[in-house]
């Protein structure tokens, strides 16, 4: 398990941010040797774009294409869509990111602020 935070010094729409996060996550995990992963996101448009073979003309389309190229480095990669209201882990990370300077990573661990929320998410309490 990996979790990370990165400050973006520019305003983007939510789909663009979701696509950027996915590209970064795939790049990072493939570089540390992960071969099997489940990627969860709350943007149905981005998740749908990742699952389809067609190219997208959306603003995040090139990022989705980058993600598809990176996905070839995995033996197994599943995409899972979750409702935005149920994505408390991402919401909590985003709120915590306000206080960081640039970049934070947790490997095989999670931020102390996330322990109870992650447990609830794994138990399906936010669905």
Automatic annotation (TrEMBL):
<dbReference type="InterPro" id="IPR012337">
    <property type="entry name" value="RNaseH-like_sf"/>
</dbReference>
<dbReference type="InterPro" id="IPR002156">
    <property type="entry name" value="RNaseH_domain"/>
</dbReference>
<protein>
    <recommendedName>
        <fullName>RNase H type-1 domain-containing protein</fullName>
    </recommendedName>
</protein>
<dbReference type="InterPro" id="IPR036397">
    <property type="entry name" value="RNaseH_sf"/>
</dbReference>
<dbReference type="InterPro" id="IPR053151">
    <property type="entry name" value="RNase_H-like"/>
</dbReference>
<dbReference type="GO" id="GO:0003676">
    <property type="term" value="F:nucleic acid binding"/>
</dbReference>
<dbReference type="Pfam" id="PF13456">
    <property type="entry name" value="RVT_3"/>
</dbReference>
<dbReference type="GO" id="GO:0004523">
    <property type="term" value="F:RNA-DNA hybrid ribonuclease activity"/>
</dbReference>
<feature type="domain" description="RNase H type-1">
    <location>
        <begin position="6"/>
        <end position="97"/>
    </location>
</feature>
<dbReference type="InterPro" id="IPR044730">
    <property type="entry name" value="RNase_H-like_dom_plant"/>
</dbReference>
């Amino acid at each position: 398990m990996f979790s990370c935070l990165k400050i973006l010094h520019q305003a983007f729409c939510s789909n663009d941010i979701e696509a950027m996060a996915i590209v970064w996550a795939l790049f990072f995990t493939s570089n540390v040797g992960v071969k099997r992963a489940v990627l969860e996101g709350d943007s149905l448009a981005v998740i749908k774009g990742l699952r389809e073979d067609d190219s997208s003309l959306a603003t995040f389309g090139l990022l989705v294409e980058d993600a598809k190229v990176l996905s070839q480095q995995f033996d197994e990669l599943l995409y899972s869509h979750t409702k935005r209201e149920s994505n408390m882990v991402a919401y909590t990370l985003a709120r915590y990111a306000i206080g960081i300077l640039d970049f934070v990573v947790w490997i095989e661990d999670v931020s102390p602020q996330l322990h109870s929320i992650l447990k609830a998410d794994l138990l399906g309490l936010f669905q």
